[in-house]
TrEMBL record, chain A:
Protein name (record): ABC-2 type transport system ATP-binding protein
Domain ABC transporter: 4-237
GO molecular function, one term: ATP hydrolysis activity
Sections of the chain in a coiled coil: none
Keywords: ATP-binding, Nodulation, Nucleotide-binding, Transport
InterPro entries: AAA+_ATPase, ABC_transporter-like_ATP-bd, ABC_transporter-like_CS, ABC_transporter_ATP-binding, P-loop_NTPase
Automatic annotation (TrEMBL), chain B:
PROSITE patterns, per the entry: ABC_TM2 (PS51012)
Gene Ontology CC terms, in alphabetical order: plasma membrane
Subcellular location: Cell membrane
Topology in membrane: Multi-pass membrane protein
Pfam families: ABC2_membrane_3
Keyword Transmembrane helix: yes
Domain of life from the UniProt record: Bacteria
Protein name: ABC-2 type transport system permease protein
Annotated ABC transmembrane type-2 domain residues: 195-429
Record family assignment: Belongs to the ABC-2 integral membrane protein family.
Transmembrane segments: 21-39, 234-254, 275-301, 321-341, 348-366, 403-425
Protein keywords: Cell membrane, Membrane, Transmembrane, Transmembrane helix, Transport
Main location: membrane
Length: 248, 431
């Protein structure tokens, strides 16, 4: 069964001359760590926004854990999906605990159960000593880790991460990647976008390279490298398919 | 309910950490209403409590001069000045001093003014007697030149002030002329009818049968509180300050959109409307607290600054309802601005300028009644004027919910329309 299945997805924003997505089709199996890769403007963020129900597709089909993105399943999908946006989607003036308590309350959790869950996650991410510190006083790496915690408070079976390690130090990145592997090992699916292709190669069991709103190629990173004799790593494969032209 | 309460708590946590926001919401309005009440206290007192010096040159030394001086002095609003440095004032001196602006007003009573009035009264009585077939010849002046009491005004004096003084002097003249005429008639009647004496003469009583008395239109004591600086400025600028909540709300919403927390909220199952409702309830609550804080300042701080005490109406429930309706309209406006604009700077500039315009046309700065007709019509479209009208209905007319419900409905409906527009714009963003 697929955790995510996208079929013939089209999206044209109001007022835009060209569609952002032009018949994008891919699927990732349940329990995998999948990478959605592509140059700037390829349509990754639009695809993720559609998967999360934040943006409506112009046409096409999206299935999350077998559920279609229609009104009847929208809430169920939201419960199953956890999103780590590229931006630190937390209130900078509130402490980590205050932020997590608020978002936990929005999920319907409260009391000792929520408190215990927050403390458990803060500990897992090495933030227990900064629990009461305001987010704006956190380092970049600490903010990224807190951002991930807010997305997994409700234990989603599909975690979507948009460049989760952008701008963080080596230690924080290592911790985040380690966490993702562990989370995946518990049977959860992960969809991950990044421009760090070495990281994607080591983390992902399946990658889809998209460009100009279309799928270019999909497969296991090692297999994709193997299929192209002149390519030694995922970055070579990426450049092979998307070219060297600069993207704005 | 948990989402709603959690949002209220979160907004509270954000507000208490935002020192600038707290200052903008609570301290600045208090300073604003205090400064405005102090500044506008003098103009409001112009025709009520301030005593004016009136230079009076009485060249008549008769009954008219005495009556005008006593009449002006009896009201307590004027101080009669008829000499300077121990020397009697001359007409030329008075004219010069008023022209220089040292004094606002001067009255010159010409010599022979009383004589002229007496002569005129005698002439009328002689005429009446003659027509009634009686022979009477009270003394009259042969050359009955008309004399004028001259008034000099400071060139900068306001039109309304001039009109009021004109009216008062004219009344004194009429009163003296009437008194003298009646006196002559009474005197002649007594002469003809020996049974009428001073003690049983009822003519003066009959003539005073209809008097003039000002009474309150409602049941309270509002005549005393109308048009003082505190009574206008405290509610008016409080409403202005309540609407300034659009700045923190719009900033709060744009920040949520920019930092991604709005996105996170939308990703969570459940209606975003409940979260928005929590936010609205919090800010409406803040508006209401703001309103009552400022009313307390009007009641307890203003008197310490030698200003009148704010008098609130008798219907506390109606006051609360109006305050909440104003808060709802202001909060909705903040949400609309926060939705429409992309950056805090755009929202700040548009929000602040639009509120200043809405307040100016809505009668916050100066009452709508003194504006040109067209501006009054436009002014009645401002939500700030609806709020002020409703508060005035309660405070000045001792009104209740029956007086204010229309304005309350207008405020609530406007708030809901603004929310609907914000919802529509937000929904369009998904496309």
């Amino acid at each position: 069964m697929s955790s995510i299945a996208v079929k013939e997805l089209y999206k044209t924003y109001t007022g835009a001359e060209e569609p952002t997505l032009k018949g994008l089709t891919f699927s990732f199996r349940k329990g995998s760590i999948a990478g959605l890769l592509g140059p700037n403007g390829a349509g990754k963020t639009t695809t993720i926004s559609i998967l999360c129900g934040l943006v409506k597709a112009s046409s096409g089909e999206v299935l999350i854990n077998g559920l279609s993105q229609d009104a009847a399943h929208r809430e169920a999908i939201k419960q199953q999906i956890g999103v780590v946006p590229q931006r630190i989607a937390l209130y900078p003036q509130l402490s980590a605990v205050e932020n997590l308590t608020y978002f936990g309350n929005l999920y319907g959790y409260r009391g000792k159960g929520l408190k215990a869950r927050i403390m458990e996650l803060l500990e897992a991410f090495g933030l227990e000593k900064s629990a009461d510190k305001e987010i704006h006083k956190f380092s970049g790496g600490m903010k990224r880790r807190a951002n991930i915690i807010a997305a997994i408070l409700h234990q989603p079976s599909l975690l979507v991460l948009d460049e989760p390690t952008a701008g963080v130090d080596v230690q924080s990145r290592s911790m985040i990647l380690q966490f993702l592997r562990e989370y995946n090992s518990q049977g959860n699916s992960i969809l991950y976008t990044s421009h760090l292709l070495e990281e994607a190669q080591s983390l992902c069991s399946d990658v889809a390279i998209v460009d100009q709103g279309r799928l270019i190629v999909q497969g296991n990173p090692d297999q994709l490298i193997h299929d192209l004799p002149d390519c030694e790593n995922l970055e070579d494969v990426f450049l092979h398919y998307t070219g060297h032209a600069l993207r704005d | 309910m948990l989402r709603l309460l959690a949002t209220i708590r979160k907004e509270w946590q954000l507000l208490v950490r935002d020192k600038t926001g707290l200052t903008l919401l609570f301290l600045m309005p208090v300073v604003l209403i205090t400064v405005m009440a102090l500044i506008q206290d003098a103009p409001f007192k112009d025709y009520q409590e301030v005593k004016f010096d009136i230079l009076t040159v009485d060249n008549d030394h008769g009954r008219l001069g005495r009556h005008i001086r006593e009449g002006l002095a009896s009201g307590g609003q004027f101080r009669i000045i008829d000499s300077l440095d121990g020397k009697p004032l001359t007409a030329e001196q008075a004219r010069q001093l008023v022209n220089e602006g040292t004094y606002k007003i001067s009255i010159i009573i010409p010599a022979g003014a009383t004589g002229n009035i007496v002569s005129n009264a005698n002439r009328i009585v002689n005429d009446i007697s003659h027509r009634m077939g009686m022979s009477l010849a009270l003394p009259v002046k042969q050359n009955a030149d008309s004399l004028d009491v001259t008034i000099y005004f400071d060139p900068a004096a306001k039109k309304a002030f001039k009109g009021a003084i004109h009216q008062a002097i004219d009344n004194f003249l009429t009163q003296v002329e009437t008194d003298m005429l009646l006196g002559r008639i009474r005197q002649e009647l007594r002469r003809k009818d020996s049974s009428v004496t001073a003690s049983n003469d009822t003519l003066p009583i009959r003539l005073q049968a209809v008097g003039l008395k000002e009474e309150a239109t409602g049941t309270g004591k509002q005549i005393d509180v109308i048009s003082n600086s505190v009574q206008h400025n405290v509610p008016a600028w409080s409403i202005f300050a309540m609407f300034f909540i659009v700045i923190p709300i719009a900033g709060n919403m744009i920040r949520e959109r920019e930092d991604g927390s709005l996105l996170r909220m939308k990703l969570i199952p459940g209606s975003y409307l409940e979260i928005l409702l929590g936010k609205m309830l919090f800010f409406v609550g803040i508006c209401v607290v703001q309103f009552y804080c400022m009313m307390l300042v009007g009641m307890y701080i203003m008197p310490l600054l030698d200003l009148p005490k704010l008098v609130m109406g008798r219907d506390a429930g109606a006051t609360f309802l109006v305050a909440a309706a104003i808060g709802l309209a202001a909060t909705s406006y903040g949400i609309l601005i926060g939705t429409l604009f992309k950056t805090p700077n755009q929202a700040l500039n548009f929000g602040a300028i639009s509120i200043v315009i809405l307040s100016a046309i809505g009668g916050i700065w100066i009452p709508l009644e003194v504006m040109p007709q067209k501006m009054q019509a436009i002014g009645h479209l401002s939500p700030l004027s609806w709020g002020l009208d409703a508060i005035n209905d309660i405070y000045l007319r001792n009104g209740n919910i029956a007086y204010v419900w229309k304005n309350v409905v207008l405020l609530i409906v406007t708030g809901l329309v603004m929310l609907a527009v914000a919802g529509y714009v937000e929904k369009r963003r998904m496309n």
